[in-house]
């Protein structure tokens, strides 16, 4: 009973933590999320001028392909290494290291007059995008109170989507992509200065045995009047529970036998696989030519810009909805309406009389719009259906499918292995996206665009089942309570762990002994 009372007390304490101090600290890392978006948006706006001769450089089809995909390759390496950097040197230090890498990548893109300099710039931007993931996401989870954690993660992803949108808007206003590449440096530079003045994650400091530094960090995060000594005791107890109460030096392979490691590892990685193959990131690079092939009379560029606006709106909506609904509910709702949007997008191609085959079977990389006799006598609503369903797809994907897996990847893992396990899972995402982007022309050539969109929609409906029967509900729980969700009742009692809110966890992820 005493322990249950302590668990209740830490909830009350964290709920009263100063929001302004927390937001000031985490917003320093938002500049890095904005930089990631700038890198993604830069690729979108630089490919047309580089391929049609509007730039001083004119690249061929193969070179354009490398410009579009090199960032994915280096991001895989960045995700993998970033976890070890965040685990060894800290979340704050890991973020500081990333900022100069972004600056170098943007400058090489802005001033590079030969293709290999652009390649190097894209590699550096992709590397920085991968490196930042573990440091930023771990920091968000570890320094925020439970009722603010999801909001902060959603705002970070909104900053990323805003970063993709801004270069597209600036280009439509007449700015060249090279000028934007230079201007984009303001985000990592301001981020570096801001991060320099925020404290390190107290959870990481406790993990490294730096208790006095953790106490100072909590004072900066919560204020002098906050009972930081109680939260510090909670962090130390959480670490003891994660490591079995005695041996805090267990190897990664030994810890992988613990249910709070292997269970979330399986859940997170399968959730990411489902997320990737809903097709959002895979289709993103082809959105212009897909819209051109739809037969719609609307400007493909304007519709693409509108879809990016709905993407940002979806991410902001996720922030608002997370204050009312749990992670699992949002994931299920998002998956259902994302599936409907993809099926509707496929049907809009099938219904439009002027829609055409997108890719030729003779080439996996060459886009060929076939010559057809245009039909003029049809209902005008058919011109708007592709735009409506594309914007709906972007909105509902970002409402949950785009953000919840990343939140789970930080919440479910224990503190001592969070950054390492997160990096392993996260590095597989750009790898899958790279394969999907490369394979998409072949898939469409073999099965058709309609069938491809229906398949992505089917995966979205699988997300509904996955969320219903597997994903845990973590809203309102501390990180320690989330870790304990994966232990059986007997294991929790053996470790002397207070039993908290376990009724919201689907039975499939619990040990059978929980009902004993």
Quick description:
This protein is mostly helical and 516 residues long. 73% of the residues lie in helices and 0% in strands.
> How does the overall form come out from the CA principal axes?
globular
- Radius of gyration equals 24 Å
Largest sheet: none
Q: How much helicity do the residues have? A: over 70%
Order of helices and strands: HHHHHHHHHHHHHHHHHHHHHHH
The low-pLDDT segments are 1-6, 361-372, 497-516
Report the average pLDDT across residues.
Answer: 82
- Total number of beta strands: 0
Q: Structural class from helices and strands? A: mainly alpha
Number of helices in the DSSP assignment = 23
Head-to-tail CA distance between termini = 20 Å
> Regarding quaternary structure, how should these chains be classified?
single chain
Strand content: under 5%
Architecture blueprint of SSEs:
Layout: H1 2-15, H2 19-52, H3 61-89, H4 91-111, H5 115-143, H6 146-172, H7 177-183, H8 186-196, H9 202-207, H10 211-222, H11 228-242, H12 252-255, H13 259-276, H14 280-284, H15 287-293, H16 300-321, H17 327-351, H18 381-401, H19 404-411, H20 418-447, H21 449-469, H22 479-484, H23 489-494
Describe this entry's structure for a reader.
This protein is mainly alpha-helical and 516 residues long. Helices cover 73% and strands 0% of the residues. The chain has 23 helices and no strands. The chain has helices at 2-15, 19-52, 61-89, 91-111, 115-143, 146-172, 177-183, 186-196, 202-207, 211-222, 228-242, 252-255, 259-276, 280-284, 287-293, 300-321, 327-351, 381-401, 404-411, 418-447, 449-469, 479-484, 489-494. Helix 4 packs antiparallel against helix 7, helix 13 (259-276) packs antiparallel against helix 19 and helix 13 packs parallel to helix 20. It is globular and about 70 Å long.
